[in-house]
Design a protein that fits this description.
154 residues, mainly beta, Immunoglobulin-like, 10-stranded mixed sheet, 10 strands, 41% strand, elongated, Carboxypeptidase regulatory-like domain-containing protein
Amino acid sequence: MTRHPPTIDDESLIAALRLASGHDPVPAHVSDAARAVFGLRLPGAATARPVATPAPSGVRYSEETRLLKFTAADLTVELEVTSLDGLVALAGQVSPCPEAGTLVEIRTLHLTQSRELSPTGQFAVTGLPPGWFSVVCHRPEHAPVATSWTRIRP
């Protein structure tokens, strides 16, 4: 009995050759996402890294609330993240208490909300979509400080 190799159509052969040569085209949605993320970068900004925060003792604590803390060399950003009806609310505090005119931006992949800090360094924003977010603190005459991107799930 003679075995014949299976026939391969031209499109399959070209796709196999592209994969073998390493020239498989990048899907359009991947390129679009990469361009969008590249547009969110902040050159010159310091990155505030996450710090582990245990659940507070002696305080009522629910699964819907997350406490997050980020630190940079001279700044700490503490956040309370609450999910309600599929949307996200953030309440935060920047310390040490920055000077007047300090703004924070709460950035998601699709929108940015800006808030001026209270005299005690507090801010809040509601109605954010679940997903990735970052908080950027803009202080007069200082480089911006941005928290690392964190994912919020409802």
